[in-house]
Amino acid sequence: MEEIAPWQIWLAAIVTLGIYSYLISDNKLYRLLLKVMIGLGVGYNFIIMWKQVLQPLWWQPMTRGFAAVFNGFAPGSAGALWVLVGLLGTLWYFQFSRKYLWLSRIVIGMTLGAGAGVVFKQQLLMNMPQIADSFRPLIARADGTPLVGGSTAPLSLWMSLNNIIFVGTIVCVMVYFFFSFEHKWAPVRHTAGLGRWLLMVSFGAFFGNTVMTRMAVFLERLQFLLRDWLHLG
Amino acid sequence: MEWLARLQSIDRRWIYAAIWVACALPFVVNIKLPVYVSPETRRLYEFIEKCPPGKVVLVDSAWDAGSQGENWGQVEVVFEHLLRKRIPFIITSVEVTPLGPQFADQVIERLVREKFPDRKYGVDWVNLGYTKGGWQAMQQIAKDIRQQYKKDSRGYSLDDAEHLPLMQRVRNIEDIYLIYSVTYSPLEDWIPFIHGVYGTPIAFGCAGIQSTTYYRYLLSGQLVGMLVGVRGAAEYDALLHPNLRDRNSMGTKLIVPQAFGHLVIIVAVILGNIGYFAARRRRG
Amino acid sequence: MTKRRFIALVTFLAGLYYFLEFVVPPTIPWRTVRGEVVSVSPQSITLLVNGQQQQIPVEPTLKVYRERPTGAPESVEPAQLRPGDRVSAGPTTYLSDWLTPVNNFFIVLGSMAWGMGLISLAMVHSGNIRRRRPEWYGSVVFFLAVGGGIVAGLGYGAEGGWLKEANDVVFNYLLRPMSSTVFSLLAFHMATASYRAFRVKSGEAALMMTSAFVVMLGQIPIGLWLTHGLPSFLQLPVMAQWVLYIANSAAVRGMWFGMMVGAIAVGLRFWLSLERGAFFDREL
Q1: For the stretch A97-107, what's the b/e string if a residue is b when 16 or more beta carbons lie within 10 angstroms of its beta carbon?
Q2: Which of residues 148-177 of C touch B (CB under 8 A)?
């Protein structure tokens, strides 16, 4: 890898500080840099998508197919059928037409339909092991097996307590989110109330991890400015 | 008491300044502190340690600039582990971002230059570049990797034995020991479509904010391990280098400034609450 | 009305393949034989079924699935079978055989929309320039940047030359720094939002704040440093792990089970075109 030229580091530092100028107040430099960033990103991704996806998966099989067709329907001619997918793909762009908008709904419908068809497999395969794992013994041995029918490991109060909290939390949270009927009956109302309290613990964990993530992005930039640009530390 | 009530209306720019100063200090003074290694990090490390010869790891490096603070360190430590144990690996980015493979290239280039100069592209690792298709792409990769990728990111055909000898023994999911997906929010589709169907172990490297939804997969065994944010990378670095002085991954460099940043947030929340209660007492 | 019905039909057919591929077994159920492999020849496979040997002729329509140690079956050729393997064999239902071409079709179809974002932005910015809206020069800069991005993208994967240099500069010293800096502004917004809004006004808020502080401190070295002298269950990292693995995972599971039912219900509505709303009820 070549030595990084100072002007390149300065370029990165200037655009970084230009965007951070927003922290003082919204300004024209910040808005201009945003437009530069969006423009570069859109243009760059446009080419990458072509090179990495459309060209190998669509263009090349299609052109090879047509070459085979013009070669007297040699093997591989079926690749020419990809032109139909290309024509179908152009229907996306009728989103910009008021009169022929419905044509774009065909490909949107196909994409939505495919996604909907796969949701059954996706959700069941993802969640069935979760459901199975949620049935935990409330009186458990040290290795997690139940008291009756489990291993010979000793009874564990800690494991049992954790399992009771675990299963109890799942039940209470599910009851809280069940809005199909009113929570009038006292046991249901109290269970839902407990579910709300237990959710607070989860939301606190979410908040803690959110702080961690947001900080990390800033720290990487700060490291660049201090070490790579200013050579401090 | 009035000054206590004013604690809830500090100008936001003072808070920004406090974050800048608190986070910059550990960079300038170069503080390193020991970390606690969490179970999910240790499980991933031990799983990679047990990799049998002849198997390959697939790294779905689908992150870009928005999450490089966390994900850079997460790929860096695992790449170092794989290079150290000479476990070959394949890099790709499925669906999320076309820029992911380029970032991974930068991480590897630095590692190879500084620590493993004898490792060779095409033998020890291959970068297949970006592919689109989400769960459809995952299914294709599992059945026959050549259905999804014709060439690598450098333009070599996957059947080019001279430039990509590694790919000559990788056909489908049978040849893959572990799939390590690193991005801001790894696609959960790896779990039902790959682990659920083929039983291939999956591990995630994710942003902290997303990790809270992935812990349930660790409990059910659908994930074999997970690196969470900056601390996951720092913990893995601690397993790779028991001596604190030998650690210099991105995760280790950022964890102490991260700690100071957390303290600023905690102090700000406490001050805001002190001001709130003081104002309430004055009114009441 | 005809247009609407045609779109509904297309939507249904698109989803029908994947639905059937999941629910219909890969082999015809009443003609599928399950047993242990005794011997294999090019013409037939001999299986031990309920203590008796049964010969299955090897035909072009025969599909063989071998059970893996994890229990999930894998599709294999008869020649790959070994004595002792547990298999199920029968005439194929063809659905799984078409998975690759169907997947490729949808991947390419979805990717065809890749110009939409560019066209939308171009329309907005060209409108700004035509009508000389405030800061219209920013839209000129946008178009110049798109051109620069396209040129830089052409250098992706290049071995050398000015295109590769352009790619390096744009990617490493413009795009990457700017993207991550924009994302990093969230750290400051989050800090001030926490300071202003996080008030302990109730018991639930107090519980949430306690949980947040335990997780924030437990995941940084300072948490370990503050409590390393205490018993293990009182150390902040251990408490943070308990919150994440037990309390948080259970709550997230509870939420996700509800979301699973909701996702299936919404998926069904989309698939059968029963969904209502501004987009779906719009005049065609």
Answers
A1: eeeeebbbbbb
A2: 156-157, 159, 171-172, 175-177
Averaged confidence pLDDT in chain B? 92
pLDDT reported for residue C277: 74
Q: Is A208 close to C178, i.e. CB distance below 8 A?
A: no
How do residues A50-103 score in pLDDT, each as one tens digit?
Answer: 988 899 889 999 999 999 999 999 888 989 999 999 999 999 999 999 889 999
CA distance C135 to A187: 61
Q: Maximum Cα–Cα distance for chain A, whole Å?
A: 79
Query: Do B95 and B187 meet the contact criterion of CB atoms below 8 Å apart?
Result: yes
Which has the closest alpha carbon to C209: B185, B276, B248? B276
Bridge-based pairing state of the strands B56-61 and C86-91: unpaired
How far apart CA A12 and CA C170 sit, in angstroms, is 10
What does the pLDDT average to over B251-278?
93
Please give the DSSP secondary-structure letter assigned to residue C37: E
Q: Is A52 left (phi over 0), alpha (psi -120 to 50) or beta?
A: alpha
Q: Is residue B255 within 8 angstroms of chain A, CB to CB?
A: no
- List the 51-70 stretch of A: residues with Cβ below 8 A of B: 52-53, 56, 60
CA distance C160 to A14: 27
Please state which of the four CATH numbers 2.40.128, 3.40.50, 1.20.120, 2.60.40 is assigned to the domain occupying B39-246: 3.40.50
Q: Which of A60, A206, A211 sits opposite B262 (nearest CB)?
A: A211
Q: How far apart are CA B93 and CA B95, in angstroms?
A: 6
- Decide if B219 contacts B240 (C-beta within 8 A): no
- Model confidence at B77: pLDDT above 50: yes
Task: Report in angstroms the alpha-carbon separations of C176 from A219, B52, B242, C29, C109.
Answer: 14, 37, 32, 54, 29
The verdict on B151 touching A (C-beta cutoff 8 Å) is yes
Position B54 scores a pLDDT of 87
Q: Which of the pair, C97 or B52, is modelled with greater confidence?
A: B52
Residue B77 phi/psi, 5-degree rounding, is: -70, -35
Instruction: Detail the DSSP E strand segments found in B132-267.
Output: 176-182, 202-206, 225-228
- Tokens for B158? 């996957």
- Asked if pLDDT for residue A1 goes beyond 50, the answer is no
Instruction: Answer for the pair B215, C241: CB distance below 8 angstroms, yes or no.
Output: no
- Cβ neighbors of C204 (< 8 A, separation 6 or more) are A196, A197, A200
Average pLDDT over residues B23-45: 92
Q: Is the pLDDT of residue A123 over 60?
A: yes
Nearest CA in chain C to B148: C104
Amino acid at A36: V
* Gap between the Cα atoms of B156 and A218, Å rounded: 37
What average pLDDT does range B81-89 have in this prediction? Answer: 96
User: Dihedral through CA B190, CA B196, CA B201, CA B205, nearest 10?
Assistant: 30
**The two three-digit tokens of residue B110, written as one number:** 């630095």
Distances (CA, A) of C108 to A105, B138, B150: 17, 15, 15
Inter-chain CB pairs, A–C, below 8 Å? 368
What is the rounded distance in angstroms from the CA atom of residue B259 to the CA atom of residue B26?
10
What average pLDDT does range A22-49 have in this prediction? 92
Q: Which residues does chain C have with pLDDT short of 70?
A: 1, 69-72, 278, 281, 283
Q: In this structure, are residues B175 and B55 in contact, taking their beta carbons and an 8 Å threshold?
A: yes
Domains contained in chain C, CATH given: 25-94 (2.40.50), 134-197 (no CATH), 203-271 (no CATH)
Q: Which residues in chain C have Cβ-Cβ distances shorter than 8 Å to A209? A: 215, 219
**Which residues of chain B lie closer than 8 angstroms to C225, CB-CB?**
33
Residue C169 CA, chain-centre distance (Å), reads: 31
